[in-house]
Specification:
Structural class: alpha+beta
Shape: elongated
Strand order of the largest sheet: 2-1-3-4
Number of domains: 2
Order of helices and strands: HHHHEHHEEEH
Bound molecules: FE2/S2 (inorganic) cluster
Number of strands: 4
Number of helices: 7
CATH class of the largest domain: Alpha Beta
CATH architecture of the largest domain: 3-Layer(aba) Sandwich
CATH superfamily of the largest domain: Glutaredoxin
Largest sheet: 4 strands, mixed
Length: 158
């Protein structure tokens, strides 16, 4: 078992709230992701057993959303939006800057395990482009100076 007792309890609790069990898929996936930090086939199977929904339906939902990593990631998952508003406001150069700053390529994790850098589709904060999400937090109206400050702050907290 990958999911701990607390996650199993929370998934069951969420599933009990919905008249249709399928409505519990995303909340269950979210609970699992917050415990483990990523998702995989074994986790889909566990969720499937817990809420009694076919594995394939859990996997379909989980793989649709890029916000759920499918392999282990660093302590801080940096998701830079690369969609149209952010692209027009310099998202590509921001990703390149982060690649240089962190000495990783997109999709990789730093050697110290602190940061994983990816780019993702629209995060729904287009009016504050360019922006990125790190774990659960949004960072908006980004500049290189602001990125430096954010990364420095996260390193100091680690
Ligand atoms: S285009 Fe980047 S948040 Fe929407």
């Amino acid at each position: 078992m990958i999911l701990n007792e607390e996650s199993i309890r929370r998934i069951k609790e969420k599933a009990a709230k919905y008249p249709r069990r399928k409505s519990a898929i995303l909340p269950a996936i979210t609970v699992a992701y917050r415990q483990v930090g990523h998702l995989n086939d074994d986790i889909y199977r566990e969720i499937s057993r817990i809420i009694n929904i076919p594995y394939v339906e859990i996997a379909e939902a989980a793989t649709f959303y890029t916000l759920f990593p499918k392999k282990p990631v660093g302590k801080y998952l940096i998701q830079v939006c690369h969609n149209i508003s952010c692209a027009l406001m310099g998202a590509d150069s921001l990703v390149t800057y982060l690649e240089e700053k962190l000495s990783v390529r997109k999709g990789e994790t730093t050697d110290d395990g602190l940061f994983t850098l990816i780019s993702v589709e629209c995060l729904g904060s287009c009016s504050t482009a360019p922006m990125m999400q790190i774990n659960q937090d949004y960072y908006e109206n980004l500049t290189r100076e602001r990125v430096d400050q954010i990364i420095d702050d996260l390193k100091a907290k680690a």
